[in-house]
Amino acid sequence: MRGMTPIVKTVTRGMAGMIFLYGIYIVLHGHLTPGGGFAGGVMVAAAFILVVLAKGSPEAVTEAKKQRSSVAESLGIFAFWALAVIGLIGGTFFFYNFLTKGRPFRLLSAGFIPLNNIAIGVEVAAALFAIFITLAVIKTGGKK
Amino acid sequence: MMTILCGLIVLMILGGFVALEAASLLSSVVLLGIVGFGLSAAFLILQAPDLAIVQIVVETLSLIIFIAVILKTTSKDATARRRKRLPHYVVAAVFAVIFMLAASWALGSMPPFGNPSLRMAEAYLSPNKFLGPTGAANLVTAVILDFRAYDTLGEATVLFTAVMGVLAVLRKTGRKQ
Known about the structure:
Order of helices and strands of chain B: HHHHHHHH
Strand content of chain A: under 5%
Shape of chain B: extended
Radius of gyration of chain B: 22 Å
Shape of chain A: elongated
Distance between the termini of chain B: 63 Å
Number of strands of chain A: 0
Number of strands of chain B: 0
Largest sheet of chain B: none
Number of domains of chain A: 1
Largest sheet of chain A: none
Number of helices of chain B: 8
Oligomer: heterodimer
Radius of gyration of chain A: 18 Å
Number of domains of chain B: 2
Structural class of chain A: mainly alpha
Distance between the termini of chain A: 22 Å
């Protein structure tokens, strides 16, 4: 995929990191403020998509990116399942909140909810980036 | 507040109609954005910031993906045809009128706006009901990741399955016969 003009590239250089950081913030503060794994994950994916759209990407690199985001997506949903199963193994029910609740309104509180948010954020970000790469960047089609 | 909401809904419906009739797919997709961003503003007016954030981000991302796909392929509407479509419009109008009448008859028996008939949500709404068991200060997160985490698990699994489908259908190399 070709990149865009130098104006877009320069703006992207400043913006992409901030969008990424804001997505991380939304994910990590999901149990305190509006937002959470889904919204933050989409923002992180948007930061990656912005970089790919603006700067372009050689074909081999794109293929590797697709593989890696697929792996990250699988790891995210596996972490979510594992967090749910830990409660079952520990002798209680599926999705048992097994960590200590902590003091409310702190960043480290609410038991395993922040961990769930992180797992969902990783899964959503990697999934949307993989879908974008596959649909819009990689050249497919044509008979052999 | 309700006036703004009604105006937004009318704008969204008009945007959907115009998107159906637009000549090129690119303008159709951009017009479809009216529906998504209008819905996000409506969520904000109805005091649901969680939904508004998710809606605005997902709408932006899906617009980007649609536009990227259209720029990569073609913006020509392959199914556009210039036939007489008056009978279609008549049938649609008749159906809309019947639907409106039935809806106004059915909605008369609904509880007033903002007063849900189900009492289930009240069990979670006071702070000591959700803050104590989960420790999360955000009620929405407490519900979707603790009380009703099964739903979220199913949702995440749906997304995972969708990605698996996309990667399997649009893969570059086919299997050798």
